[in-house]
Write the structure tokens for this entry.
Amino acid sequence: MIALSCKNITYRYGSKPALDDVSMDLEAGRFCALLGPNGAGKSTLFALLTGLLVTNEGRISIAGFDMAIDARAGLAKIGVVFQQQTLDLDMTVARNLNYFAALQGLSGAGARKNIDAALDRLDMRERAHEKVRTLNGGHRRRMEIARALVHQPEVLLLDEPTVGLDTASRLAITSHVHDLAASGLLVLWATHLVDEIGDQDHVVVLHEGKVLVRDTAKIIAGAGTLTDAFIAMTDQVKAA
Amino acid sequence: MMPYLVSLRAIVMREALRFFNQRSRFFAALVRPLVWLIVFAAGFRAALGLSIVPPYETYITYEVYIVPGLCGMIQLFNGMQSSLSLVYDQEIGSMRLLLTSPLPRWWLLFCKLLAGVVVSILQVYVFLGLAAFAGITMAPLGYVFVFPALILSGLMLGSLGLLISSTIRQLENFSGVMNFVIFPMFFMSTALYPLWKMAESSTLLRDICYFNPFTHAVELIRFSLYESFNGAALIWTVVSFAIFMAGSLIGYDPARGMSRKKAPVGK
């Protein structure tokens, strides 16, 4: 089942295109890395997918809902982890997640059940009553992911979620998110770090607003490594 | 309907908790009007003679005159403070969180606005309590009648803050708002001097003050504190609110507003 589909998306800031004719169809249950150097257009694509920006060039559909026609139904199916922190540092984890559940229209026992389930998925339930300020960077990121799962979305978007974390925390988070994909979610993980991507993961390489290639990491890497293939591809564009 | 009320309650509670957690903000919000009331008014009392104009039925002292204006000032500063925190929220992620909720954007912005109004009304009542303690009291019903007036004036001033926040890209630009919005709005209004007094020095200034929506918010508060009704002020306040709110909705509409010109962080 196609969980997220983009067809011929173009977006410009003024006259400069940030995304140029981007298309992709991504199936449920996959971990898909959106790989691109800084400034490739990853955040612009995320802003379009989440309705923070709109374009009239191209179509986006999430879980079957066309974002131009029924953006609200589409948004209800997306969980987003932004680059920036969204949790209020002076409130407990539980209160933060309750606030988010309410923004999704959830309350009472239903909300509590979803929050517990989301915390369990990230192994963070025992920290529910701690203030966010007392958590370390890795745990805060995990909480952000738990927050994005509270309304049980079908698509999880993560915009460079491991920025600023140490190696152990990065590994823990990438492994947790791979598990989420295995449980049936479509995960779209924007990154410029090749080492976060496994051989079987799907990769969309975005560079200067264009999709250069879309396949599994193993096939893109060929005989060499994904890093080499990625550098060669982006250099080629520069040379051309 | 439930999801709407659930989100409203959550947004208002969060804003109120934030406010009480920031004690310094709470005290600053109270000290400012108290300084005006105690220091400024004491100095001006001798310089300014006030004649009897509605809603007053007798001679009043200057301290009594400026109390409604200071209530307005609390709401004006609060509106701008909310606007500042919205700009800050845009730089961190929590505004994105709000705007990617599946509830309609106009509703979420309205909830945010109403949350600011609730906080401002709490401050106004604490200020009125302190003013009463200092001997400036109203009739008991005045404190009741002022409540709907404060909701309206708070909505109007809050929506102005919302409109401003939709046009500002960075926190650094906010000092301009102080210079070009708060001070002119406050000083060119009936908060500190009545219109007829203003006309004595300049009729042009009087006219500018008359067209300032803040003047009408203050008059609405003033009349209701004295259990009377000012229809013109009500209409001005409601119409200004409608215009500012419509402007904010356009400003926050991703297809049309200023957000289109903003590149997301990390583009």
Notes: The CA atoms of residues 18 and 182 of chain A lie 32 Å apart. The mean pLDDT of chain A is 89. Chain A is about 35% helix and 25% strand.
